[in-house]
Amino acid sequence: MIGIQNLTKISDHEWEIPQSFRQDMRVPVHIFATQRLLEQVMDDKSLEQAVNAATLPGLVGKVVVMPDMHQGYGFPIGAVVATSFPQGVVSPGGVGYDINCGIRLLASDIEYEAAIPHLDTLATLLNKYCPSGVGQEGVLRVNIPELERVLREGSRWALRNGYATEADLSRTEEGGCLEGANPAKVSERAKKRGQSQLGSLGAGNHFIEVDVVDEIFAEQAATVMGLRPGCLALQIHCGSRGLGHQVCTDYVQELQAAVRRYGIVLPDRELVCAPMDSPEGQAYLGAMRAAANFAFANRQLLAHSARRAFEEIFAGRLKGWELRQVYDIAHNMGNVETHEIDGQRMKVCVHRKGATRAFGPGSPGLPPEYQSTGQPVLVPGSMGTASWVLAGTEMSMQRSFGSSCHGAGRVMSRSKAKHEIRGEALRRELEQGGIKVRAGSMSGLAEEAPRAYKDVDEVVETVTAAGIARKVARLRPVVVVKG
Amino acid sequence: MGFEEIAHTADCALRVWADDLEGLFVEAARGMNALSGARLAASQRTSRTFETEGADAESLLVTFLSELLYYAEQENLAFDHFNVQTFKRSNVQALKVEMDGAPLESLIKAIKAVTYHNLQIRPTARGCEVEIVFDV
Fold this sequence. Notes:
The complex is a heterodimer.
Chain A: E1 8-11, E2 14-17, E3 29-32, H1 35-40, H2 46-53, E4 63-73, E5 75-84, E6 89-90, H3 92-95, E7 102-111, H4 112-115, H5 119-129, H6 144-153, H7 155-160, H8 166-170, H9 188-195, E8 207-216, H10 219-225, E9 231-238, H11 241-261, E10 274-275, H12 279-314, E11 324-330, E12 332-341, E13 344-353, E14 355-357, E15 376-379, E16 387-392, H13 394-399, E17 403-405, H14 414-420, H15 423-432, E18 436-439, H16 442-447, H17 456-465, E19 469-482
Parallel strand pairs in A: 3-4, 18-19
Antiparallel strand pairs in A: 1-2, 2-3, 4-5, 5-13, 6-10, 7-9, 7-11, 8-9, 8-19, 12-13, 14-17, 15-16, 16-19
Helix pairs in contact in A: 5-12, 6-12, 9-11, 11-12
Chain B: E1 2-6, E2 12-18, H1 21-36, E3 39-40, E4 46-54, H2 57-75, E5 77-89, E6 92-106, E7 113-114, E8 122-124, E9 127-135
Antiparallel strand pairs in B: 1-2, 2-9, 3-6, 4-6, 5-6, 7-9, 8-9
Helix pairs in contact in B: 1-2
């Protein structure tokens, strides 16, 4: 059991678990958190899981943990773990089951005041055009050869088929297509699951939300991102659906034997891994990238469906109704990137599990308009609370492998939330607060109640005070669609 | 024999116990049905047989429960009666399950996956038990 007494306080927003804490640690754990946020996770296994992650072979630098951390399985949620490329390991359980679960933000010039009479219809149409809920099929069913093209091309496939614009792709992490995707390494079962799920939201914590840009903190960056105060924006949160879940399930199972073959000793079987230059590591990377491309295409199709809803309601009624992409980022991913570590530039595989990229100004891969602002970092809050748009900084490149927090982070278990919160009462409460709600399940809604999450403002204050991101804008929800 | 939901901050977890390994598999399947709120249709009963091999009992358990998730998503089927056999086959653990079930009338919670997180089937005074974490 790890207590605050085992941590070294570096500042009001940073802590460290030294490598000497446990014999099998290969690197220290660096935590971005206030004391209050830390105390909120002392009863769960977040820190123990971070220490477990610090035992992986080939680690470089430190295991970094974000202030929205909470207990997961294998890695804690909020972990950033870098391994040297190509001899270090890649861990499927570290990346997680919902490969490239991520968030997309689109902005409009629709004034909130003018939109108020239409928000109820907008909620209904978003719910209708963006299929959500348990096991729900997507807007499109594709045959296997077409699915394999999606797996190779990601958002480029969506562009070729009229579901995207060039601007959408340039404002998506990695252009919406990871190179090196290998559909041949994706099982038939995973492909079968993916065939009918393109353009679907799923359930759980996935959502579509319409927000109002509530306050601007960095005018120039907000202007470049297309965020206008008082105007509507839209967030889409989802991932690679059953296809990604199956890819991870397959490789966590397959690599159980690989760790024995490579003599890797682990404190938790969910952390199974293989060297990136091994056949097993290569196979997983090829499959993971394919699943990530599926997720990029999935969010692109959902954005297309959301645009259809906006057009149907606002075109001809209000000016500036078009939804323009601000950015799309992944939360669960293993990316090969170049970082400076201990004064040396080196290629590493950055596992982000419930954490996002937060590349600073001048980073390769950012579109020209974001070269001076830094990458938009999207931090959704919980239903009923604010969401934030931040920007990556030079400091994040130096201190967190170009990463930041991904959300508010849960603080209450789902079982406790269901026990303490009634879905229907919560829905009424949100509606009374001016938020239109469409939800597939009232118990699912209760599990995702704002009280089940940390204070997103404190999470954002932590990363901005530590300098790994800077504030651009705060958003306030007005429509929530959940599966 | 039985199961109970235990607290997990973000995902879901079950503690399952039984007199023997076969019973543990049955209770784990029933527990997962309860967790996801699976409601089976009263008619159209159907049967399936599932066989697999693995390095150990934990691996068989993950594969078995993952198979049930697949049936639910792809064939809209859930099962409520199980005949489980575990045995050794040329030095590996093997599992055979004959299952009876029906189409799903409703499913409240989506379970994404069955994890290996701290998964360990432990012997107890009353048989054996295991804690299973599900990604939801």
